[in-house]
Design goal:
417 residues; 3 domains
Length: 417
Amino acid sequence: MQLFALGINHHTAPLAVREQVAFDPLRMGQALHDLLRAKPVREAAILSTCNRTELYCAAENPLEAANWLAEYHSLSPQKIHPYLYQHPQRDAVRHVFRVASGLDSMVLGEPQILGQMKQAARFAEEAGTLGTLLGKLFQNTFAVAKEVRSTTAIGANTVSMAAAAVHLSERIFDSIAAQKVLFIGAGEMVELCAAHFAARQPRRLTIANRTLERGADLATRFGGDAMRLDQLGERLAEYDIIVSCTASSLPIIGLGMVERALKARRHRPMVMVDLAVPRDIEAEVSRLDDVFLYTLDDLGQIVESGLESRQAAVVEAEAIITDRVSGFLHWLESREAVPTIRALRDAAERARRHELEHAMKRLARGDDPAKVLDALSHGLTNKLLHAPTHALNQSEGAERAEVSALISRIYRLNAGE
């Protein structure tokens, strides 16, 4: 049984492909059960974010899990295989460590991915698919990510997706302070974006959410107001900047809705930022003359400009990860020896009990305790040395030399003394 990781991300696949293999958080437990039931996978966890979908598994054949990923989303394997990467054990451990540390993110060093990975571990634990191997992997992963962030400057001056959204908006509008901003959703990404936009003191800040109470709670923190999601169609025209990030499996804002809003605005420009996977805003909206629609991939181009200043920290982080990968793999290899160690200890315990019972009988009939102890020690020595001595006597030639060297190493013998 081997650990492996497979998936697609912003490096290997465009948004149009990534959104087709995204997982609904509300159905994650069901998906994990389906993976273990349908394929020869012993342990599994799924990480599904805006920029990546990855499976972490303990299994014999990673190709089966790759095919399952396509089947689960009603896609042919050929549809996603060109974009898919697969990492066997050593590379899988290194990949997971790098992802959690922010080294594989669109925004180098961004901290959100660690929380998302912890959520993936919680989903797997709740679903009962987090076994010994993956459990230990996640435990080490979180420790490595903490070490990287606390001992390097990988997170210093990070250009976030939220900051990039503000930057793009300021390309169209000279001042955010004069604009009305609408956020659709009330999750972590929207919260981060709202904080960045609120710092620019917009003319109005509104949160649209299916649950009005939750939207109102978030809006209150930033001095804004809230509305229900079903009010979008009638109120979209009021806003100059729209930032959307929900878990909806279908677009929330369609072409017709935006066309009606532009007509009501008399074609004053609108900035729309779609941070969702799958997309919240229909792609056709980008063809409208008065709409500036940006997706995750567009924001990624903005944040790349801040990479150079963090390259020194990357070198330090990679060194930490390389060392911790070796430590984890050593733990994995040591697990393979556990059955042998257990059998060796069981054999020694049987020999001990046998000699002890024999000694107790001799003491009970009045034999000299000193002679009984001496016989006990000789008996244990003979039993424990019988197997290596027999192996050495039965071997010949090169095999004898090999056995002799192995015994010398095990017992730390020095033939020169």
